[in-house]
Amino acid sequence: MRRLTVLYDADCPLCVHLRHWLLRQRQLVPLDLVPAGSQEARRRFPALDHAATLREITVIGDRGQVYRETAAWIVCLWALAEHRPRAHWLATPAGQPFARMTVLAAAKWREALKGPGIPGGGPGPDGCGDGRCEVPGPPG
């Protein structure tokens, strides 16, 4: 594998934060980060279910391999120099439950940030409905 395309939700604060984190890491396999559902994503991958890519992280390999949810996060880590050993462990029977729980926790937090009417999002803590919810600040 020579290159991976990561489709991320550009209207999700957590997803955007993770995008920036991925870009700061030393990459063994180059990552192209493309907003899910965008014209660019649709141009590159016309056969993909683009509505689904807004609900779950999707990574596409340079030979058409499609990774979703937990497998997508593992392959992203595998592409990074410092995290490849962790990715190998997360792909084992011992590591898979940890990887799955991490992805589920991130999805739950993401849904809490998204407003009503947003694909994949439930009612947000501030009731935002325009897809531009902000990460809640500290209380008080």
Describe this structure in words.
There is one protein chain. This protein is of the alpha+beta class and 140 residues long. Helices cover 42% and strands 12% of the residues. It is built from six helices and four strands, in the order E-H-E-H-H-E-E-H-H-H. The protein has helices at 13-24, 39-44, 50-55, 69-78, 84-90, 96-113; strands at residues 4-8, 31-35, 58-61, 66-68. Strands 2-1-3-4 form a four-stranded mixed β-sheet, with helices on one face.
Task: Provide keyphrases for this structure.
6 helices; 4 strands; alpha+beta; 12% strand; 140 residues; 4-stranded mixed beta sheet
Task: Furnish the topology, listing elements before pairings.
Blueprint: E1 4-8, H1 13-24, E2 31-35, H2 39-44, H3 50-55, E3 58-61, E4 66-68, H4 69-78, H5 84-90, H6 96-113
Parallel strand pairs: 1-2
Antiparallel strand pairs: 1-3, 3-4
